[in-house]
Amino acid sequence: MPARPDYATFIARHAEVVERINSGEAGLPILGVLLRLAQEALSSAGMTFAEYGPSGGRIVAATGEAEWALGRPVDKESPTTKRLLTGLRTQVISLDRISGKFPDQATGHGLHTMLVTRVILGGLVIGSLQAFYREVEDLPTIEHHTLIEFVAINLAHMYGHQAGLPVHGDGPVVAALADGLAIIDYDRKVRLWNPAAEAVTGLSTADVLNATLPFPIPVLGQTLDHRLADGRWLKITAGELTGTVDSVVVTFRDISDQHRREGDRDLFVALTSHELRTPVTVIKGYADTLNSHWDELPEYERRHATDVIGQRAGELAKLVDRLLSAADQSGPTAGSPPTPFDLVESLRVAERDLPTALRRRLLVRLPVDLPKAIGDRSTITTILTELVTNADKYSIDGTAIELTAQSDERTVVFRVSDRGIGVRPEHVERAFDRFWQAESGDRRRYPGAGLGLYLVRRVIERQNGWVSLRPRDGGGTVAEVRLPRG
C-alpha cells in the first residue's frame, strides 16, 4: 500500500498555499500547487482535477504521470463519469475493470488504481479530484480517503470565492432551477422568499426576510432585465398579489446565458467587420491602381500588385472559413469518420503548405517510426497552420518554432513549441475560448479575432483527441495535440 501520509509536512506546505492565496494568487496556478502537494502527500503517481459545467467537463489541472491528460474533455454521460458522480463520495476504482476511453488510456500509461472524490459546492458537483497509483498493491487506506476529501473541500472553498475559478464560465452552474419568487409589501420589504430565490441569488431567507428587495421592481405587468453585482443577469416580472391591497409578487430567473449569447453575437459582428476590412481594403486599393494605371506601371509593379491581390484573397478566404466555423454554435459536427493515418506524413504535407515566412522559422524534428494516429487527415493542415501562426504572432523575430512528435501506449502527440512571450498559467484554458484575447482595447500588440485556438480545439475533439497549452521551461509556450493511437 502507499506510504502513510506525512501530515506534518502536508500541514506546513498547506499553510504556504493558504498564504499564497491570501497574498492574491488564485486560479490555475494555485490549483496546480495544491495538486502537486496532494500527490506528494498521497504518495500517488499523479493527480488530475476535472471541472464540470452544464454540458460536460474538462481536466484543467494534472500532475506527475497523469500530465498527459491535461486538457482532455470529460463526457458526463459516460459510464465511468456517471459512476464517479454517484454513489460514495470517495471511491477506489481499478481502472482495468472498467470500460471507456479514459480508463484505457490511463492503463496504457501504467496506471492501475484511481482514488477519486467529488468536489461539491452548495450541493452541486463542480468537479472531481483523482489520484492515480501504478501497482495493484497500491490500494489507498482510510487515511488517504480522508486526506483527498480534505483537499477537495479546499478546492470547493476556492470555487466559492470565485478567485480565478471556475476556469470555464463565470461561476458555479446551478442548472434547471425554477423561477425565484418573492412577495413584498408597500415598503418593498420581503415577506416571502422561496428556495428557488435562494438558489438564483445566493441570498438565504434569513438574509432578505423583512429587508428591502435587493434589486429593482419593474412596472407592474412588465419585465425588467437587471444585472447583479457578480455580473449575472436576472429577468424580473412583477404583479399584484390577488386578494391583497399592498402586496406585490415578484418572480425572477437567471438569464445570464442568454445575455452571453447576445454579447457573443454582437462581438462576432464587430470582429467580422474589423477582420474583413483590412484585406478587402488592400485588394480594392491594388485593383483600383491596376485599373487606372495599367499602362503606366512597369511589369514588375503589375506582377507585385497581382501577387498581393492573390495573397490577400487567399487570406480572406481562410478568414471567412474561420468566421463561419466560429459562428456555428451547434458544437462539433460529424465530418469524415476517424481513420488511421500517417501523422508524420500529414505534418510534412501541412508544413509545405505554410507561408514561406513561417516555413523558414519552423524547426521540424519528426521521428520516422511514429505509429499511425486515428483521426481526420484533412484537418492537420488547418491545425498546424493555426498553431504555428499563433506561435509566430507571439514570438520574437529570429527565434525558432519547433515541431516535434512522439507516442505512448494509447495516444500519438505532436507539439508546437516557441520561445515567445509565454502563456500565463491562468490563461492556458481561457485561450481556447471563442473571441478571447489576452489583451483588449485599441492598443493590442497582437492582432487577431481570437478564433484560432477555439477552432483547433473543436476540430481535435471531434476526432476524440484533445489539445492543451502550457508554459515552456526556459520561456515560451508549448501547444500539445493528442490523437488516439492507431
TrEMBL record:
GO function term, MF aspect, one: phosphoprotein phosphatase activity
GO process terms (BP): cellular response to phosphate starvation
Record's subcellular location: Cell membrane
Signal found in the keyword field: no
PROSITE patterns: HIS_KIN, PAS
Keywords associated with the record: Kinase, Membrane, Phosphoprotein, Transferase, Two-component regulatory system
A cellular component term, taken from the record's GO annotations: plasma membrane
Occurrences of domain PAS (ranges): 173-210
Domain Histidine kinase: from-to ranges: 271-486
Reaction equation(s) it catalyzes: ATP + protein L-histidine = ADP + protein N-phospho-L-histidine
Protein name: Sensor-like histidine kinase SenX3
Organism of origin: Asanoa ishikariensis
Lineage: Bacteria, Bacillati, Actinomycetota, Actinomycetes, Micromonosporales
